C-alpha cells in the first residue's frame, strides 16, 4: 500500500468521523462510496466491491459510533429512553437487510446506494426539519416500524441510520443536538449487528487476501482510528457553529457521489 493510499484512507476517516459527530449520520454515506472507489483503485475483485465496501464500513462504524456516542453522552444529548424503545426493532431490520444484500449483485447495490444518496441529498438541501414545541411520543408499534426500517436500510447499504432516525427524532420533538446524539447511539448496535452479519452471511467470499467475509481488515485498521479523531471534532462543531452551510456542502457532495454511483460505479469515477 502506497503513501497516497494511506493518506486517502486517513482523509476519508477524518471526513466521515467529523460528519458523524456533527450530523449524527454514522459516516457510512461517506465511507461506503469512498471505500468503493479506493478498492477499485487497488484492483480488488469487481464482483465484491460494494459488498466489501459496505461490510468494511459497518465494522469501521463500530469505532466511529462508539466515539460519537460517548461524545454526545458527555454533552447530555443521548435520550436513552428512546434508545431502549427502538433498538430491538433496529437490530432485527439490520439482519433482514443484510440477508437481502447478500443475494444482490454488486451492480444493483451500486444503483440502490446511488439512488438513496440522491434522496438524502434532496432532503438535506431542502433542509426539511419538522419542529414541535413539545415532545411527541409515538405509539410503540410506530416506533418499532420506524426502527425496523432504519435497521433494514442500514443492513442492505452498510450505513448508519441517521438519514431516517434524525428526522424521526425531530418529529418526536427533540432539538437538533439531541436528535443527532440519540441517532448516533442507534448507530453503535447497528454497526455491531451489521458487522456480525457481514462476517457470518457472506456466502463464502473469503478467498480475498486480508478479508474475512466482507470485512477488508486493512481498510478497517487505517480508516477507523481517523474516524474516532474526527467524531469529537464534529460533536463540538455541532454546538459551536450553525450547520447550515456545512449541510449545503454535504448535500451537494452527496449529489455528486450519488450520480456517480447511480451512473456506473467505477467507470464513472474514472
TrEMBL record:
Membrane topology: Multi-pass membrane protein
Pfam families, per the entry: TauE
Annotated TM spans: 6-39, 46-66, 78-100, 107-126, 146-172, 184-202, 214-237, 249-269
Subcellular location per the Swiss-Prot or TrEMBL entry: Cell membrane; Membrane
Keywords noted in UniProt: Cell membrane, Membrane, Transmembrane, Transmembrane helix
DNA-binding recorded as keyword: no
Similarity remark: Belongs to the 4-toluene sulfonate uptake permease (TSUP) (TC 2.A.102) family.
PANTHER family membership: MEMBRANE TRANSPORTER PROTEIN HI_0806-RELATED (PTHR43483:SF3)
Protein name, per record: Probable membrane transporter protein
Species, as recorded: Leptothoe kymatousa TAU-MAC 1615
Species classification: Bacteria, Bacillati, Cyanobacteriota, Cyanophyceae, Nodosilineales
Amino acid at each position: 500500500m502506497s503513501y497516497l493510499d494511506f493518506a486517502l484512507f486517513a482523509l476519508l476517516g477524518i471526513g466521515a468521523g467529523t460528519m458523524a459527530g456533527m450530523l449524527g449520520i454514522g459516516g457510512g454515506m461517506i465511507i461506503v462510496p469512498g471505500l468503493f472507489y479506493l478498492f477499485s483503485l487497488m484492483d480488488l475483485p469487481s464482483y465484491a466491491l460494494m459488498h466489501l465496501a459496505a461490510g468494511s464500513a459497518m465494522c469501521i462504524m463500530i469505532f466511529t459510533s462508539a466515539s460519537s456516542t460517548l461524545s454526545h453522552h458527555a454533552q447530555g444529548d443521548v435520550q436513552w429512553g428512546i434508545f431502549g424503545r427502538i433498538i430491538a426493532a433496529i437490530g432485527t431490520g439490520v439482519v433482514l437487510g443484510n440477508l437481502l444484500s447478500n443475494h444482490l449483485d454488486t451492480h444493483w447495490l451500486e444503483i440502490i446506494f446511488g439512488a438513496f444518496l440522491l434522496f438524502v441529498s434532496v432532503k438535506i438541501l431542502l433542509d426539511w426539519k419538522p419542529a414541535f414545541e413539545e415532545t411527541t411520543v409515538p405509539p410503540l408499534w410506530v416506533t418499532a416500524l420506524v426502527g425496523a426500517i432504519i435497521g433494514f436500510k442500514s443492513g442492505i447499504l452498510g450505513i448508519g441510520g441517521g438519514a431516517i432516525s434524525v428526522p424521526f427524532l425531530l418529529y418526536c420533538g427533540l432539538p437538533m443536538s439531541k436528535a443527532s446524539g440519540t441517532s448516533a447511539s442507534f448507530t453503535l448496535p447497528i454497526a455491531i449487528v451489521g458487522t456480525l452479519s457481514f462476517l457470518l452471511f457472506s456466502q463464502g467470499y473469503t478467498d480475498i487476501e486480508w478479508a474475512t467475509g466482507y470485512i477488508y481488515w486493512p481498510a478497517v485498521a487505517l480508516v477507523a482510528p481517523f474516524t474516532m479523531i474526527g467524531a469529537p471534532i464534529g460533536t463540538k462543531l455541532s454546538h459551536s457553529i450553525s450547520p447550515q452551510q456545512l449541510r449545503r456542502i454535504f448535500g451537494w457532495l452527496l449529489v455528486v457521489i450519488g450520480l456517480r454511483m447511480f451512473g456506473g460505479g467505477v467507470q464513472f469515477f474514472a
